[in-house]
Specification:
Length: 119
């Protein structure tokens, strides 16, 4: 990951609501979550505010979306998240990030039961 991409991603996550949204989407797994459910999980965040924050995260490359009928389904970009974590920890433990216990996350590994309990 380039330094400029890391700065953009960190800047997007430096805002409390965006960090909360990103955490919800990471927990949702690779299938993602409809906008309405994201707003509900965040205590009824106004649609315009939610849309603004989702757009900021999307522009930073941390999330993506797809259309299903009339619904927009947002999902975390696990590769971007893992790249950011790798960038931040590349010099950890004298260059051995694996020795620090930092591991990659793959949202597709959440089973259906885990997804239901996290939604």
């Amino acid at each position: 990951m380039e330094k400029s991409h890391a700065i953009t991603a960190l800047a997007a996550l430096a805002q409390e609501s965006r960090l909360d949204i990103f955490r919800v989407l990471v927990q949702a797994g690779a299938e993602g979550m409809p906008v309405g459910r994201i707003g509900h999980r965040l205590g009824g965040m106004p649609s315009a505010t939610l849309s603004f924050h989702l757009n900021q995260l999307r522009q930073a490359g941390l999330i993506n979306f797809r259309r299903e009928g009339r619904s927009l389904i947002y999902a975390a970009e696990y590769a971007a998240m893992n790249d950011l974590m790798a960038y931040l920890t590349e010099n950890c433990c004298q260059g051995d990030a694996a020795g620090c216990g930092v591991r990659a996350c793959d949202g597709s590994k959440l089973n259906a039961k885990e997804r239901r309990t996290r939604q």
